[in-house]
């Protein structure tokens, strides 16, 4: 999704889904969706 534009407005939490299944949460700041997990907790 790098470089994709998203028409969402506002700020807050968003559920990230893959093929219709929930994969995790992200925080939307109005321009970028940021990962909720700390770097050490993410899978590589």
Key traits:
single chain, 44 residues, mainly beta, three-stranded antiparallel β-sheet, 0% helix, globular, rRNA small subunit methyltransferase F RNA-binding PUA-like domain-containing protein, Nol1_Nop2_Fmu_2
End-to-end distance? 17 Å
**pLDDT < 50 stretches:** none
Give me the count of strands.
Answer: 3
Q: Helices and strands, in N-to-C order? A: EEE
Count of spatially separate domains: 1
Largest beta sheet: what is the strand line-up? 1-2-3
**Helicity range:** under 10%
Let me know the largest β-sheet: 3 strands, antiparallel
Mean pLDDT: 78
- The radius of gyration is 11 Å
Number of helices: 0
In percent, how much strand structure appears in the residues? 35-45%
Broad structural category: mainly beta
Envelope shape: globular
Plain-language structure description:
With 44 residues, this protein is mainly β. The chain has strands at 12-18, 21-28, 33-35. The protein has one domain (1-31). The protein has no helices and three strands. The protein has a three-stranded antiparallel sheet with strand order 1-2-3, with no helix packed on it. Strand 1 (12-18) and strand 2 (21-28) form a beta hairpin. This is rRNA small subunit methyltransferase F RNA-binding PUA-like domain-containing protein. It comes from Cohnella candidum.
Task: Report a brief summary of the structure.
It holds the Pfam family Methyltranf_PUA. The protein has strands at residues 12-18, 21-28, 33-35.
Topology diagram in text:
Elements: E1 12-18, E2 21-28, E3 33-35
Antiparallel strand pairs: 1-2, 2-3
């Amino acid at each position: 999704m790098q470089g994709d534009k998203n028409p969402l407005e506002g700020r807050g939490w968003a559920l990230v889904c893959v093929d219709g299944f929930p994969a995790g949460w992200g925080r939307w700041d109005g321009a970028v969706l940021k990962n909720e997990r700390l770097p050490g907790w993410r899978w590589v």
